[in-house]
Amino acid sequence: MNKEEWIEAALPNYILTNPALLAEISGLSEKDQLDQILWAFEDEAEALNIEPWELALDFSDKSEDEVKALRLAVHQEAAKTLEMDWEEYCALNAVEV
């Protein structure tokens, strides 16, 4: 799965934790409901100062060890793409190894 698929898979679990939003959007079309849920999800990630894909992992059915490994893999990929030293990347992005 890629990051976008993680987010998509997390949304059904996320909305269960937000019954007020579910009630608020109940009269909207299915597409508009999905948009509202996604925007709320992204807003929550921003409020937590994390990326939406990171929040998505919290709503997955994966074990804590699997989530940690996936987070590290994505951060390692980002460090490689940015051509940054791994230790420097971790320090700048508060990544705990």
From TrEMBL:
It comes from Pseudomonas abietaniphila. This is Dephospho-CoA kinase. InterPro entries: DUF6388 (IPR045662). Pfam families: DUF6388.
